[in-house]
Amino acid sequence: MYTVCVRDHFMIAHSFTGEMFGPAQRLHGATYVVDLEFRREALDENGVVVDIGLATRILREILERLNYRNLDEIDEFAGRNTTTEFMARHIFDRVAARIAAGDLGPDAKAIESMRVTLHESHAAWAAFEASL
Amino acid sequence: MYTVCVRDHFMIAHSFTGEMFGPAQRLHGATYVVDLEFRREALDENGVVVDIGLATRILREILERLNYRNLDEIDEFAGRNTTTEFMARHIFDRVAARIAAGDLGPDAKAIESMRVTLHESHAAWAAFEASL
Amino acid sequence: MYTVCVRDHFMIAHSFTGEMFGPAQRLHGATYVVDLEFRREALDENGVVVDIGLATRILREILERLNYRNLDEIDEFAGRNTTTEFMARHIFDRVAARIAAGDLGPDAKAIESMRVTLHESHAAWAAFEASL
Amino acid sequence: MYTVCVRDHFMIAHSFTGEMFGPAQRLHGATYVVDLEFRREALDENGVVVDIGLATRILREILERLNYRNLDEIDEFAGRNTTTEFMARHIFDRVAARIAAGDLGPDAKAIESMRVTLHESHAAWAAFEASL
Amino acid sequence: MYTVCVRDHFMIAHSFTGEMFGPAQRLHGATYVVDLEFRREALDENGVVVDIGLATRILREILERLNYRNLDEIDEFAGRNTTTEFMARHIFDRVAARIAAGDLGPDAKAIESMRVTLHESHAAWAAFEASL
Amino acid sequence: MYTVCVRDHFMIAHSFTGEMFGPAQRLHGATYVVDLEFRREALDENGVVVDIGLATRILREILERLNYRNLDEIDEFAGRNTTTEFMARHIFDRVAARIAAGDLGPDAKAIESMRVTLHESHAAWAAFEASL
């Protein structure tokens, strides 16, 4: 199995609902450093898993829609805790939709699975991975 | 599959038995930077894999029992080489026992697997992972 | 010259005023990973620059007052852009005050200078350093 | 499952064929920081996954044959794009051959799978993993 | 003293002249991860050392001229060893010229010194720093 | 000013004397990841600060004498706390002696200053720097 990973980041504000979050129930924020991994069994005819330039651009576009935002004000996230885990899944779904739409090229349909990791500090991260 | 990871560290002395260890048969030591990963299929009602505050505290408690110790003098490890691999498994078992005892909350029983990684330098690490 | 550095982090929300900030004028947030360095010419009688346990605790206390906060709502910062540079200076001043108050021990008065670095992502950081 | 990983690096020149590579079609180069992971279900009698000293030496020997080379001039790679993915597989195959030849010791035959990761910058990496 | 740093990277081929370089006399290559630091005594009216967006763009433009190139073929470097140290200085001079040309804004003239660090692997780096 | 840095590591056991060390008074240990920096105003005729191959070898030799040792048993350190700060200075002095002895080549006498940093975990380090 081959994997290719590209890294980028975004910076947001948000708050959490639920006693277990303690002081994180207040409005605060985070930098998320994002690792986006693509996996497939065989390389394409160019010898790559995915067009890394295209992958980097798609990831950037998806993060731009979140960057410098207060996630509490985004309708799509209403009633949900935008935890690191949840945001990893959100970005996964966005990339998957772009692959399905052909935006990573026709060959990207051979990608079998992806993993999205969000590093929230030097001491904690969360990830979501699934087959496509 | 969702994953959440928290990081901490501990510092110990130990020695190894066996010719293959060469100079590491002498009493020496290590800093182990520990990454503890929890995995489950679905998030809980709060939108998390595990209460990260609780997970951090449990990991700290487990590492405190090892921190600043000479592992050669701990009865539980008698006759065993406390290699990085071995210590990763030891910490895994300790965390698993705490989950079984309910110390990470009732919802932590939904955790399906864990992985414990011990970084022993900038150039080497070992890990143990298993289902719960 | 000897230096000792300890690392911790905090997570905040804020917004900036000024056209140059572009989308960062919106309410957003950041994780700041903080490196706090102490410098002095000679070690103390214990062979250290500073009591690292005490330094770690003092840094934690200072960051706790900022952690999980919206910096826009803190009176002390009214009318100021809480940029990474600015926050590095703010933390520097807080630590300096604690040293002056004797909270790092009498011997900490021998510390000649400090440097505070705030990493805001994998690709950017800011620092403030000065003599004491 | 236990994993042990050792890290090393090599520096090469190469060029790519194919429009998708854009300016990377020109002769350029890369530093590849290599993480080589070995996996097995149970530790050997010494309590290790593999003799880490031996593993480090074997990896060094394999990388020496590539280090400071122009990959475009190596016959074995003729007609292939020596992408990060491709080179990860190449190194995997070399290590697998050394294990099969007994060069990591008789006990290394118990290694069930390996993963080779090549970091090409602070923002991208590729990997190949497979059973042995 | 305040410092702000931004990070980017470029990938090149080159060879060295001189016996001390051993196998690095052959055509090979490197990824250079670049840290560009700006230093000044006081923050500007916006509370920053430099417009970080502008700084990032200028650095990108300078690196684009080197990226995916064989440095042996660049006239400007003829007869020189394009070592990590040398390239750090080259990039320093380019950024300094852009500041002098006003490309980082009129306020950037207050920048007192800069430092450029090039990481060539996980185990080595070189830097050049000077007053402006 | 130019700087070149090489990285290596060593693993030791030791204990500290003095109440301020708390549990670190017990025999424990550490991995020290070492960054050794050389600084000079101008590059030599080859375009380098120092022969990096030679520097790496000298550092390795110095660390080998400490690696896998119990520092409490080394006569030279008797009556001293082998803190991270202290060990940074010790390694600095060893490298300086090797430069003075001509072991880094005649040109290494142009090195003006050095800095030795010992990382003891992901969250703490100490350094010693001085002119030569």
Describe the structure.
The structure is a homohexamer of 132-residue chains. By secondary structure, chain A is of the alpha+beta class. Helix content of chain A is 23%, strand content 34%. Chain A is built from 2 helices and 5 strands, in the order E-E-H-E-H-E-E. Chain A has helices spanning 52-64, 84-100, and strands at residues 2-14, 28-40, 69-70, 113-121, 124-131. A 5-stranded mixed beta sheet of chain A has the order 3-1-2-4-5. The two termini of chain A are 15 Å apart. In chain A, 52% of the residues are buried. The model of chain A has no long low-confidence stretch (mean pLDDT 97). The A-C interface holds A 7, 9, 11-14, 23-24, 26-33, 67-70, 119-123 and C 7, 9, 11-14, 23-24, 26-33, 67-70, 119-123.
Number of helices of chain A: 2
Q: Averaged pLDDT of chain A, please?
A: 97
Q: Note the beta-strand portion of chain A.
A: 25-35%
Q: Sketch the topology of chain A as an H/E string, one letter per element.
A: EEHEHEE
Biggest interface, which chains? A-C, 25 and 25 residues
Indicate the radius of gyration of chain A in whole angstroms: 16 Å
Short description, anyone?
The first copy, chain A, has two helices and five strands. Chain A has helices at residues 52-64, 84-100, and strands at residues 2-14, 28-40, 69-70, 113-121, 124-131. In chain A, strand 4 (113-121) and strand 5 (124-131) form a beta hairpin.
Per-chain topology:
The structure is a homohexamer of 132-residue chains.
Chain A: E1 2-14, E2 28-40, H1 52-64, E3 69-70, H2 84-100, E4 113-121, E5 124-131
Parallel strand pairs in A: 1-3
Antiparallel strand pairs in A: 1-2, 2-4, 4-5
Helix pairs in contact in A: 1-2
